[in-house]
Description:
Blueprint: H1 3-10, E1 35-37, E2 42-44, H2 51-74, H3 82-110, H4 114-125, H5 132-137, H6 140-148, E3 177-184, E4 187-194, E5 200-204, E6 215-216, H7 217-224, E7 228-231, E8 251-253, E9 256-259, E10 265-272, E11 277-283, H8 284-289, E12 292-296, E13 301-304, E14 307-308, E15 321-327, E16 332-337, H9 349-358, E17 361-367, E18 375-377, E19 380-381, E20 393-394, E21 396-400
Antiparallel strand pairs: 1-2, 3-4, 4-16, 5-21, 6-20, 7-18, 7-21, 8-9, 10-11, 10-12, 13-14, 13-17, 15-16, 15-17, 18-19
Amino acid sequence: MNKDTERHVYRAPQRVQRTTASNPRHIRRAPAGASQAGQTGQTASPRQTSPARQAATARQTATAPQTASARQASRPRRKANPVLRALAGLGVTLGMLLVFCLGASAVICLGPSPSARDLFVNTCMETSALKFIPRIFFEESRIEAIRAKNGVLDSGAVTDTSVDFTQSEDALPLDTIEIEDVSGPSFKGKMMIVHDPSRVKVASLDSFSPDVSGKRLLEYVEEAGAVAGINGGGFQDLNGVGNGGMPLGLVIRDGKLLAGGLNSATSVIGFDNENHLVVGTMTGQEALDRGIRDALSFGPVFIVNGEPAEVTGSGGGLNPRTVIGQRADGAVLLLTIDGRQPQSLGASYEDCIQVMLDYGAINAANLDGGSSTQMVYQGETINVCASLYGPRRLPTAFIVM
């Protein structure tokens, strides 16, 4: 190896001027794998790169991704609104629940079991808010046919008030109020037995209007200084959100007709001046002529003069129920049955009739049920209300003084 070659290897890179083929000894080929250094055509091996330049290149290589990462991390992240996330989750859940419910409804309505279909249709049609479900699958005429063959037939009979009360030797004092638990295959409830029928009266608004809000049962009880109460007659309740200001049928309080017509026939459920529970269909004038002191309207009638009504098919749907009845000794039976809950789906009309017969009722009728069903005793609600919004506002109630 001559001295010129040694200088090129160990000294800093020098500019090498290209020569022609006539002077080939000044032309040097780069070793294999070496990169070209600059635009001048000078070549160098990795060993010819200075330590300072290698360090700078390493720093640039290491710094570039770190700088990009730092720049990305410095950007503020948008935080998701927790309210919107909760609403979105709720919407998805409700949507899935709706799809499930409609699917289950389709299976029941269009499935192979007529009895399950009839029970389901009657259950929905007895509510204010769920009537639309059967109408998805059936025409109105089909629904009416299903309801006609699964219910309670009206005998047209009216209570005979000429029969006096008969007291047994082991009768409890008249000021006694008993409360017992009742249950059946699909329901749980409360039975209140009021031994003095004169203590049971109608409480109501002083005037009625669709623009007026009714009162909650506890308000009626407290304002009258009563000890107990149950919800009373029906009222206008479009889609289950009515304000309870307009009753259906008649209302008689303290012998005065507050709602309903003198010549319009309607259901009557109430007490006369002799404290007999009177049930049946009559006009407002007929009710006043019979000496009705407190009454309201709903139905159907379950028992008249000891005879239970005829039940067809499923005997109605499974729903919360409120029923009033009277025994032969005059004791008043107030029944509430919880419904629309896992532990108590509800009772049919036939279930209610059987419970009242078991307690010795000779007259009994169905009151407004569903989400209105409520029993209050000594300032507390002792049943489980089905209403999602708490106790309903009502135009009427039965209270126990």
